[in-house]
Amino acid sequence: MKQEVKEILEVLEAHGYQAYIVGGYVRDYCLGLENTDIDVATDATPEEIQHIFKQGKLSGEARFGNVNIGDIQVTTFRKDSYPENSRFPKVVYTSSLEEDALRRDFTINALYMDKNGHIIDVVGGLDDLKKGILRTIKDPNTSMKEDPLRIIRALRFQKKLDFTLDEELTQAITKHKRLIHHISKKRLHRELEKENDFTIKDIEWLLKK
Protein backbone atom coordinates (compact mmCIF):
# COMPACT_ATOMS: atom_id res chain seq x y z
CA MET A 1 0.00 0.00 0.00
CA LYS A 2 1.36 3.39 -0.99
CA GLN A 3 2.21 5.60 1.97
CA GLU A 4 0.12 8.46 0.58
CA VAL A 5 -2.92 6.17 0.42
CA LYS A 6 -2.39 4.88 3.95
CA GLU A 7 -2.13 8.48 5.14
CA ILE A 8 -5.46 9.34 3.52
CA LEU A 9 -7.09 6.39 5.30
CA GLU A 10 -5.49 7.34 8.62
CA VAL A 11 -6.48 11.01 8.35
CA LEU A 12 -10.11 10.15 7.57
CA GLU A 13 -10.22 7.69 10.45
CA ALA A 14 -8.64 10.24 12.78
CA HIS A 15 -11.58 12.52 11.98
CA GLY A 16 -14.04 9.77 12.90
CA TYR A 17 -14.85 8.40 9.44
CA GLN A 18 -14.65 4.97 7.88
CA ALA A 19 -12.12 4.69 5.05
CA TYR A 20 -11.08 1.79 2.82
CA ILE A 21 -9.39 1.03 -0.46
CA VAL A 22 -12.01 -0.50 -2.74
CA GLY A 23 -12.45 -2.10 -6.14
CA GLY A 24 -9.93 -3.17 -8.72
CA TYR A 25 -6.83 -2.61 -6.61
CA VAL A 26 -8.12 -4.91 -3.86
CA ARG A 27 -9.24 -7.51 -6.40
CA ASP A 28 -5.84 -7.58 -8.09
CA TYR A 29 -4.02 -7.54 -4.74
CA CYS A 30 -5.88 -10.71 -3.76
CA LEU A 31 -4.92 -12.28 -7.10
CA GLY A 32 -1.28 -11.27 -6.81
CA LEU A 33 -1.55 -8.85 -9.74
CA GLU A 34 -0.11 -5.34 -9.97
CA ASN A 35 -2.51 -2.42 -10.03
CA THR A 36 -1.59 1.23 -9.50
CA ASP A 37 -5.14 2.59 -9.85
CA ILE A 38 -6.32 3.11 -6.27
CA ASP A 39 -9.77 4.25 -5.13
CA VAL A 40 -10.77 5.06 -1.58
CA ALA A 41 -14.31 4.79 -0.21
CA THR A 42 -15.48 6.59 2.92
CA ASP A 43 -18.61 7.68 4.74
CA ALA A 44 -17.33 11.27 4.75
CA THR A 45 -19.27 13.50 2.35
CA PRO A 46 -17.45 15.32 -0.48
CA GLU A 47 -17.72 18.57 1.47
CA GLU A 48 -16.23 16.93 4.57
CA ILE A 49 -13.43 15.39 2.50
CA GLN A 50 -12.59 18.76 0.99
CA HIS A 51 -12.63 20.39 4.42
CA ILE A 52 -10.32 17.77 5.94
CA PHE A 53 -7.80 17.88 3.08
CA LYS A 54 -7.98 21.62 2.45
CA GLN A 55 -4.19 21.77 2.41
CA GLY A 56 -4.01 19.08 -0.25
CA LYS A 57 -4.41 19.30 -4.00
CA LEU A 58 -8.07 18.85 -4.76
CA SER A 59 -9.57 18.48 -8.20
CA GLY A 60 -12.58 16.97 -9.86
CA GLU A 61 -16.21 17.43 -8.86
CA ALA A 62 -18.43 16.05 -6.13
CA ARG A 63 -21.48 15.30 -8.29
CA PHE A 64 -21.12 11.55 -7.71
CA GLY A 65 -19.34 11.84 -4.38
CA ASN A 66 -15.88 11.93 -5.96
CA VAL A 67 -12.99 14.07 -4.74
CA ASN A 68 -9.51 13.67 -6.19
CA ILE A 69 -6.64 14.03 -3.73
CA GLY A 70 -3.58 13.95 -5.94
CA ASP A 71 -3.92 10.79 -8.03
CA ILE A 72 -6.23 9.13 -5.51
CA GLN A 73 -9.99 9.28 -6.01
CA VAL A 74 -11.90 9.41 -2.73
CA THR A 75 -15.60 8.58 -3.04
CA THR A 76 -18.40 8.82 -0.52
CA PHE A 77 -20.34 5.63 0.28
CA ARG A 78 -23.54 5.76 -1.71
CA LYS A 79 -26.52 3.78 -2.84
CA ASP A 80 -27.72 4.23 -6.41
CA SER A 81 -31.21 3.92 -7.79
CA TYR A 82 -32.17 4.04 -11.44
CA PRO A 83 -35.41 5.85 -12.35
CA GLU A 84 -37.54 3.96 -14.86
CA ASN A 85 -36.22 4.23 -18.43
CA SER A 86 -33.10 6.06 -17.26
CA ARG A 87 -29.47 4.93 -17.21
CA PHE A 88 -28.39 7.83 -15.03
CA PRO A 89 -28.42 6.82 -11.36
CA LYS A 90 -29.94 8.87 -8.60
CA VAL A 91 -27.17 9.14 -6.04
CA VAL A 92 -27.87 9.04 -2.31
CA TYR A 93 -24.99 9.16 0.17
CA THR A 94 -24.95 6.58 2.95
CA SER A 95 -22.84 5.71 5.99
CA SER A 96 -23.17 1.99 5.26
CA LEU A 97 -20.33 0.04 3.66
CA GLU A 98 -22.79 -2.76 2.95
CA GLU A 99 -25.09 -0.47 0.96
CA ASP A 100 -22.09 0.90 -0.94
CA ALA A 101 -21.01 -2.64 -1.83
CA LEU A 102 -24.46 -3.59 -3.12
CA ARG A 103 -24.44 -0.84 -5.76
CA ARG A 104 -21.26 -2.13 -7.43
CA ASP A 105 -21.14 -4.25 -10.57
CA PHE A 106 -19.41 -7.56 -9.80
CA THR A 107 -18.69 -9.32 -6.52
CA ILE A 108 -14.95 -9.34 -7.17
CA ASN A 109 -15.01 -5.54 -7.48
CA ALA A 110 -16.79 -5.02 -4.17
CA LEU A 111 -13.90 -5.90 -1.87
CA TYR A 112 -12.64 -3.36 0.69
CA MET A 113 -9.23 -3.14 2.36
CA ASP A 114 -8.48 -1.26 5.56
CA LYS A 115 -5.24 0.54 6.40
CA ASN A 116 -3.79 -2.67 7.88
CA GLY A 117 -4.44 -4.73 4.77
CA HIS A 118 -7.47 -6.61 6.12
CA ILE A 119 -10.11 -7.47 3.51
CA ILE A 120 -13.82 -6.81 4.08
CA ASP A 121 -16.13 -8.88 1.87
CA VAL A 122 -19.92 -8.63 2.22
CA VAL A 123 -20.99 -10.06 -1.16
CA GLY A 124 -18.92 -13.25 -1.59
CA GLY A 125 -16.24 -11.72 -3.77
CA LEU A 126 -13.35 -13.65 -2.20
CA ASP A 127 -15.08 -16.96 -2.85
CA ASP A 128 -15.70 -15.98 -6.48
CA LEU A 129 -12.03 -15.01 -6.83
CA LYS A 130 -11.00 -18.46 -5.60
CA LYS A 131 -13.41 -20.13 -8.02
CA GLY A 132 -12.48 -17.88 -10.94
CA ILE A 133 -16.10 -16.83 -11.50
CA LEU A 134 -17.42 -13.45 -12.56
CA ARG A 135 -20.82 -12.78 -11.00
CA THR A 136 -22.97 -9.68 -10.61
CA ILE A 137 -24.12 -8.52 -7.19
CA LYS A 138 -27.66 -7.76 -8.32
CA ASP A 139 -29.76 -9.94 -10.57
CA PRO A 140 -27.69 -9.89 -13.81
CA ASN A 141 -30.66 -8.88 -15.97
CA THR A 142 -31.29 -5.87 -13.76
CA SER A 143 -27.59 -5.06 -13.62
CA MET A 144 -27.13 -5.13 -17.41
CA LYS A 145 -30.23 -3.05 -18.04
CA GLU A 146 -29.23 -0.44 -15.50
CA ASP A 147 -25.87 0.08 -17.17
CA PRO A 148 -25.09 -1.75 -20.45
CA LEU A 149 -21.42 -0.84 -20.06
CA ARG A 150 -21.32 -3.69 -17.56
CA ILE A 151 -21.68 -6.05 -20.51
CA ILE A 152 -18.39 -4.74 -21.90
CA ARG A 153 -16.79 -4.77 -18.47
CA ALA A 154 -17.80 -8.41 -17.99
CA LEU A 155 -16.08 -9.39 -21.23
CA ARG A 156 -13.01 -7.34 -20.35
CA PHE A 157 -12.62 -8.94 -16.93
CA GLN A 158 -13.27 -12.38 -18.38
CA LYS A 159 -10.35 -11.94 -20.78
CA LYS A 160 -8.04 -10.14 -18.37
CA LEU A 161 -8.47 -12.59 -15.50
CA ASP A 162 -9.29 -15.71 -17.53
CA PHE A 163 -12.44 -16.10 -15.42
CA THR A 164 -15.64 -17.97 -16.23
CA LEU A 165 -18.83 -15.96 -16.55
CA ASP A 166 -21.57 -17.05 -14.19
CA GLU A 167 -24.25 -18.93 -16.15
CA GLU A 168 -26.96 -16.40 -15.31
CA LEU A 169 -24.63 -13.56 -16.31
CA THR A 170 -23.93 -15.24 -19.65
CA GLN A 171 -27.65 -15.55 -20.28
CA ALA A 172 -28.23 -11.90 -19.34
CA ILE A 173 -25.47 -10.69 -21.68
CA THR A 174 -26.96 -12.69 -24.55
CA LYS A 175 -30.45 -11.40 -23.78
CA HIS A 176 -29.51 -7.73 -23.44
CA LYS A 177 -26.57 -7.42 -25.86
CA ARG A 178 -28.54 -5.02 -28.07
CA LEU A 179 -28.31 -2.46 -25.27
CA ILE A 180 -24.61 -1.87 -25.94
CA HIS A 181 -25.65 0.24 -28.92
CA HIS A 182 -26.86 2.80 -26.36
CA ILE A 183 -23.40 3.18 -24.81
CA SER A 184 -21.79 6.47 -25.77
CA LYS A 185 -18.61 6.23 -27.84
CA LYS A 186 -16.76 8.15 -25.14
CA ARG A 187 -17.65 5.64 -22.40
CA LEU A 188 -16.95 2.69 -24.71
CA HIS A 189 -13.53 3.93 -25.75
CA ARG A 190 -12.68 4.83 -22.15
CA GLU A 191 -13.40 1.23 -21.15
CA LEU A 192 -11.39 -0.18 -24.04
CA GLU A 193 -8.40 1.96 -23.09
CA LYS A 194 -8.14 0.30 -19.67
CA GLU A 195 -6.56 -2.86 -21.09
CA ASN A 196 -4.01 -2.87 -23.92
CA ASP A 197 -4.99 -6.34 -25.08
CA PHE A 198 -8.76 -5.75 -24.97
CA THR A 199 -9.93 -4.19 -28.23
CA ILE A 200 -13.05 -3.61 -30.25
CA LYS A 201 -12.48 -7.03 -31.86
CA ASP A 202 -13.32 -8.65 -28.53
CA ILE A 203 -16.86 -7.28 -28.69
CA GLU A 204 -17.47 -7.14 -32.45
CA TRP A 205 -19.76 -10.15 -32.30
CA LEU A 206 -21.97 -8.21 -29.92
CA LEU A 207 -21.79 -4.92 -31.81
CA LYS A 208 -23.01 -6.62 -35.00
CA LYS A 209 -26.15 -7.91 -33.33
Give a structural overview.
There is one protein chain. The longest helix is centred in the C-terminal third of the chain and has 13 residues, at 149-161. The chain folds into two domains: 1-131, Beta Polymerase, domain 2; 132-209, Hydrophobic Seed Protein (Orthogonal Bundle), CATH 1.10.110.30. The chain has helices at 3-14, 24-31, 46-52, 97-102, 125-131, 140-146, 149-161, 167-176, 185-192, 204-207; strands at 19-22, 39-42, 58-59, 66-69, 72-76, 78-81, 90-93, 111-113, 119-121, 133-134, 164-165. A hairpin with a 2-residue loop joins strand 4 and strand 5 (72-76). With 209 residues, it is of the alpha+beta class. A seven-stranded mixed beta sheet has the order 3-4-5-2-1-8-9. The protein has a two-stranded antiparallel sheet with strand order 6-7.
What would the average pLDDT be, to the nearest integer? 89
- Helix vs. strand class: alpha+beta
Known CATH architecture of the largest domain: 2-Layer Sandwich
The helical percent reads: 25-40%
Total count of domains: 2
Q: Would you list the SSEs in sequence order as H and E?
A: HEHEHEEEEEHEEHEHHEHHH
Distance between the termini: 43 Å
Q: In this structure, how is the largest beta sheet organized? A: 7 strands, mixed
What's the short version?
By secondary structure, this protein is an alpha+beta fold. Helix content is 39%, strand content 18%. It folds into two domains: 1-131, Beta Polymerase, domain 2 (2-Layer Sandwich), CATH 3.30.460; 132-209, Hydrophobic Seed Protein (Orthogonal Bundle).
